[in-house]
Write a structure and sequence with these properties.
Elements: H1 2-15, E1 20-22, H2 23-30, H3 34-46, E2 50-53, E3 56-59, H4 65-69, H5 73-86, E4 92-95, H6 99-102, E5 115-118, H7 121-129, E6 133-136, E7 140-142, E8 147-149, H8 151-157, E9 164-168, E10 171-173, E11 176-179, H9 182-193, E12 198-201, E13 213-217, E14 223-226, H10 232-239, E15 244-246
Parallel strand pairs: 4-5, 4-9, 5-6, 9-12, 12-14, 14-15
Antiparallel strand pairs: 1-3, 2-3, 7-8, 10-11, 11-13
Helix pairs in contact: 2-3
Length: 251
Protein backbone atom coordinates (compact mmCIF):
# COMPACT_ATOMS: atom_id res chain seq x y z
CA UNK A 1 0.00 0.00 0.00
CA UNK A 2 2.84 2.39 0.83
CA UNK A 3 4.54 1.73 -2.51
CA UNK A 4 1.27 2.32 -4.34
CA UNK A 5 0.78 5.60 -2.45
CA UNK A 6 4.32 6.75 -3.21
CA UNK A 7 3.83 5.88 -6.89
CA UNK A 8 0.69 8.02 -6.78
CA UNK A 9 2.68 10.91 -5.31
CA UNK A 10 5.20 10.75 -8.15
CA UNK A 11 2.38 10.55 -10.70
CA UNK A 12 0.61 13.56 -9.17
CA UNK A 13 3.83 15.59 -9.23
CA UNK A 14 4.47 14.62 -12.86
CA UNK A 15 0.98 15.70 -13.90
CA UNK A 16 1.03 19.02 -12.00
CA UNK A 17 1.71 22.26 -13.86
CA UNK A 18 5.08 23.05 -12.26
CA UNK A 19 5.97 19.45 -11.32
CA UNK A 20 5.50 20.57 -7.72
CA UNK A 21 2.80 20.24 -5.04
CA UNK A 22 2.40 21.20 -1.40
CA UNK A 23 1.94 18.70 1.41
CA UNK A 24 -1.60 20.03 1.90
CA UNK A 25 -2.47 19.44 -1.77
CA UNK A 26 -1.10 15.88 -1.64
CA UNK A 27 -2.94 15.18 1.60
CA UNK A 28 -6.26 16.14 0.01
CA UNK A 29 -5.64 14.24 -3.21
CA UNK A 30 -4.55 11.04 -1.45
CA UNK A 31 -7.01 11.31 1.47
CA UNK A 32 -4.33 10.53 4.07
CA UNK A 33 -2.81 12.45 6.97
CA UNK A 34 -0.18 15.13 6.46
CA UNK A 35 2.19 13.09 8.64
CA UNK A 36 1.90 10.17 6.23
CA UNK A 37 2.58 12.41 3.24
CA UNK A 38 5.61 14.00 4.88
CA UNK A 39 7.02 10.56 5.71
CA UNK A 40 6.50 9.40 2.13
CA UNK A 41 8.13 12.56 0.75
CA UNK A 42 11.16 12.12 2.97
CA UNK A 43 11.56 8.49 1.86
CA UNK A 44 11.23 9.42 -1.82
CA UNK A 45 13.75 12.24 -1.37
CA UNK A 46 16.27 9.79 0.13
CA UNK A 47 15.81 7.62 -2.98
CA UNK A 48 16.59 10.72 -5.13
CA UNK A 49 13.13 10.55 -6.75
CA UNK A 50 12.07 14.06 -5.76
CA UNK A 51 13.30 17.25 -4.11
CA UNK A 52 11.86 18.49 -0.84
CA UNK A 53 10.68 22.09 -0.95
CA UNK A 54 9.37 24.28 1.83
CA UNK A 55 5.89 22.84 2.52
CA UNK A 56 5.97 20.23 -0.23
CA UNK A 57 8.04 18.58 -2.96
CA UNK A 58 8.93 18.73 -6.65
CA UNK A 59 10.22 16.26 -9.22
CA UNK A 60 13.95 16.33 -9.99
CA UNK A 61 14.30 17.52 -13.57
CA UNK A 62 17.84 18.63 -14.46
CA UNK A 63 17.75 21.28 -17.17
CA UNK A 64 20.47 21.84 -19.75
CA UNK A 65 22.71 24.90 -19.55
CA UNK A 66 20.89 26.55 -22.46
CA UNK A 67 17.56 26.07 -20.70
CA UNK A 68 18.91 27.41 -17.42
CA UNK A 69 20.33 30.47 -19.15
CA UNK A 70 16.80 31.61 -20.00
CA UNK A 71 15.57 31.34 -16.40
CA UNK A 72 15.82 34.31 -14.01
CA UNK A 73 18.05 36.15 -16.50
CA UNK A 74 17.83 39.59 -14.86
CA UNK A 75 18.45 38.09 -11.42
CA UNK A 76 21.57 36.36 -12.71
CA UNK A 77 22.90 39.57 -14.24
CA UNK A 78 22.36 41.37 -10.92
CA UNK A 79 24.29 38.63 -9.13
CA UNK A 80 26.99 38.75 -11.80
CA UNK A 81 27.62 42.42 -11.08
CA UNK A 82 27.83 41.67 -7.35
CA UNK A 83 30.35 38.87 -7.91
CA UNK A 84 32.54 41.14 -10.03
CA UNK A 85 32.53 43.84 -7.32
CA UNK A 86 33.93 41.40 -4.74
CA UNK A 87 36.99 40.26 -6.70
CA UNK A 88 40.22 42.07 -5.70
CA UNK A 89 43.11 42.71 -8.06
CA UNK A 90 46.07 40.32 -8.05
CA UNK A 91 44.03 37.47 -6.61
CA UNK A 92 43.35 33.80 -7.38
CA UNK A 93 39.64 33.21 -7.93
CA UNK A 94 37.59 30.04 -8.27
CA UNK A 95 34.47 30.34 -10.43
CA UNK A 96 32.14 27.37 -10.23
CA UNK A 97 30.04 26.06 -13.09
CA UNK A 98 26.46 27.14 -13.59
CA UNK A 99 24.55 29.84 -15.43
CA UNK A 100 24.31 32.18 -12.43
CA UNK A 101 28.07 32.46 -12.10
CA UNK A 102 28.51 32.46 -15.89
CA UNK A 103 26.39 35.64 -15.94
CA UNK A 104 29.22 37.33 -14.05
CA UNK A 105 31.78 36.67 -16.78
CA UNK A 106 31.02 39.78 -18.83
CA UNK A 107 31.46 42.00 -15.76
CA UNK A 108 34.73 40.56 -14.47
CA UNK A 109 37.82 42.72 -14.17
CA UNK A 110 40.13 42.18 -17.11
CA UNK A 111 43.93 41.91 -17.02
CA UNK A 112 44.36 43.03 -13.41
CA UNK A 113 46.68 40.31 -12.25
CA UNK A 114 43.78 37.95 -11.54
CA UNK A 115 44.23 34.19 -11.94
CA UNK A 116 40.90 32.49 -12.59
CA UNK A 117 40.39 28.77 -12.00
CA UNK A 118 37.21 27.02 -13.12
CA UNK A 119 35.75 23.67 -14.13
CA UNK A 120 33.20 25.39 -16.38
CA UNK A 121 33.90 25.08 -20.09
CA UNK A 122 31.69 28.10 -20.82
CA UNK A 123 33.44 30.40 -18.36
CA UNK A 124 36.87 29.17 -19.48
CA UNK A 125 36.27 29.97 -23.17
CA UNK A 126 34.62 33.31 -22.44
CA UNK A 127 37.47 34.57 -20.25
CA UNK A 128 40.21 33.21 -22.55
CA UNK A 129 38.71 35.16 -25.46
CA UNK A 130 39.04 38.30 -23.30
CA UNK A 131 42.74 37.55 -22.74
CA UNK A 132 42.39 36.64 -19.06
CA UNK A 133 44.57 34.17 -17.18
CA UNK A 134 42.37 31.09 -16.79
CA UNK A 135 43.02 27.51 -15.72
CA UNK A 136 40.47 24.84 -16.64
CA UNK A 137 40.30 21.87 -14.29
CA UNK A 138 40.50 18.55 -16.14
CA UNK A 139 38.10 15.64 -15.77
CA UNK A 140 35.22 13.98 -17.59
CA UNK A 141 32.89 16.31 -19.47
CA UNK A 142 29.26 16.62 -18.40
CA UNK A 143 27.45 17.80 -21.51
CA UNK A 144 24.21 18.93 -19.85
CA UNK A 145 25.99 21.26 -17.40
CA UNK A 146 29.05 22.10 -19.54
CA UNK A 147 31.49 21.33 -16.75
CA UNK A 148 34.36 18.97 -16.03
CA UNK A 149 33.96 16.63 -13.08
CA UNK A 150 35.48 13.60 -11.39
CA UNK A 151 38.81 12.64 -9.84
CA UNK A 152 41.03 14.61 -12.25
CA UNK A 153 39.05 17.81 -11.72
CA UNK A 154 39.26 17.39 -7.95
CA UNK A 155 43.02 16.74 -8.11
CA UNK A 156 43.49 19.92 -10.13
CA UNK A 157 41.58 22.08 -7.63
CA UNK A 158 43.49 20.54 -4.72
CA UNK A 159 46.65 22.19 -6.10
CA UNK A 160 45.32 25.68 -5.41
CA UNK A 161 44.23 27.92 -2.59
CA UNK A 162 41.82 30.62 -3.68
CA UNK A 163 41.61 34.13 -2.32
CA UNK A 164 37.91 33.90 -3.05
CA UNK A 165 35.62 31.10 -4.28
CA UNK A 166 32.18 31.43 -5.86
CA UNK A 167 30.04 28.30 -5.92
CA UNK A 168 26.54 27.93 -7.33
CA UNK A 169 23.70 25.83 -5.91
CA UNK A 170 20.47 24.25 -7.13
CA UNK A 171 18.73 24.90 -3.83
CA UNK A 172 19.13 26.11 -0.24
CA UNK A 173 16.93 24.32 2.29
CA UNK A 174 17.06 24.64 6.09
CA UNK A 175 20.59 26.04 6.04
CA UNK A 176 21.95 23.45 3.61
CA UNK A 177 23.24 24.12 0.09
CA UNK A 178 22.42 21.31 -2.33
CA UNK A 179 22.96 20.16 -5.89
CA UNK A 180 21.63 17.44 -8.22
CA UNK A 181 24.86 15.51 -8.81
CA UNK A 182 27.18 13.60 -6.48
CA UNK A 183 30.24 14.51 -8.56
CA UNK A 184 29.21 18.16 -8.69
CA UNK A 185 28.80 18.17 -4.90
CA UNK A 186 32.36 16.86 -4.49
CA UNK A 187 33.80 19.59 -6.71
CA UNK A 188 31.97 22.27 -4.74
CA UNK A 189 33.22 20.86 -1.43
CA UNK A 190 36.86 21.04 -2.59
CA UNK A 191 36.44 24.59 -3.91
CA UNK A 192 35.04 25.73 -0.56
CA UNK A 193 37.69 23.89 1.45
CA UNK A 194 40.43 25.70 -0.52
CA UNK A 195 38.90 29.17 -0.46
CA UNK A 196 40.07 31.83 1.98
CA UNK A 197 36.71 33.53 1.44
CA UNK A 198 33.73 31.60 0.16
CA UNK A 199 30.40 32.68 -1.29
CA UNK A 200 27.47 30.57 -2.42
CA UNK A 201 25.54 32.08 -5.30
CA UNK A 202 21.78 31.57 -5.68
CA UNK A 203 18.98 33.47 -7.32
CA UNK A 204 16.05 33.87 -4.92
CA UNK A 205 13.92 31.19 -6.62
CA UNK A 206 16.31 28.57 -5.21
CA UNK A 207 15.81 29.46 -1.55
CA UNK A 208 13.52 26.92 0.12
CA UNK A 209 14.32 24.18 -2.41
CA UNK A 210 16.42 21.06 -1.80
CA UNK A 211 18.18 18.89 -4.37
CA UNK A 212 19.43 15.44 -3.31
CA UNK A 213 23.12 16.11 -2.61
CA UNK A 214 24.33 18.31 0.23
CA UNK A 215 27.66 20.07 -0.29
CA UNK A 216 27.76 22.74 2.45
CA UNK A 217 26.13 24.06 5.56
CA UNK A 218 25.68 27.72 4.68
CA UNK A 219 26.82 28.83 8.14
CA UNK A 220 30.30 27.69 7.06
CA UNK A 221 30.62 30.22 4.20
CA UNK A 222 31.17 33.97 4.27
CA UNK A 223 27.84 34.75 2.69
CA UNK A 224 25.09 33.98 0.19
CA UNK A 225 24.83 36.24 -2.87
CA UNK A 226 21.23 36.70 -4.04
CA UNK A 227 19.23 38.96 -6.34
CA UNK A 228 17.00 41.89 -5.43
CA UNK A 229 13.75 39.87 -5.72
CA UNK A 230 14.41 38.03 -2.46
CA UNK A 231 11.43 38.27 -0.09
CA UNK A 232 11.27 38.70 3.68
CA UNK A 233 10.76 35.00 4.42
CA UNK A 234 13.72 34.05 2.25
CA UNK A 235 15.93 36.63 3.95
CA UNK A 236 15.11 35.06 7.31
CA UNK A 237 16.04 31.62 5.97
CA UNK A 238 19.53 32.91 5.15
CA UNK A 239 20.17 35.43 7.94
CA UNK A 240 19.70 32.87 10.68
CA UNK A 241 22.78 31.03 9.37
CA UNK A 242 25.09 33.45 7.55
CA UNK A 243 25.47 36.84 5.88
CA UNK A 244 23.35 37.75 2.91
CA UNK A 245 24.62 39.92 0.06
CA UNK A 246 21.72 41.32 -1.95
CA UNK A 247 22.54 42.56 -5.43
CA UNK A 248 21.19 45.84 -6.79
CA UNK A 249 18.26 45.87 -9.19
CA UNK A 250 19.28 46.51 -12.78
CA UNK A 251 17.41 49.50 -14.20
Amino acid sequence: MKRTRQDQILALLASSKNKSLTTTELTKKLNVTSMTVRRDLNELAKKKLLSRTYGGASLIIEKSTSEKNKIQRNAKLEIGLKIASLIPENSTVYLGAGTTIFAAAEFLSLNKGIQYVTNSELIFHYLVEKNNNVILAGGYYNKSSNQLLGTLAIQCLENYYFDISFVGTNGIFKGKATTSSFDDANIKKIALQHGKKNYIVADSSKIGIADPYLFSNIQEVDGIIVDSKINTWQKKQINRYTNILISRKIK
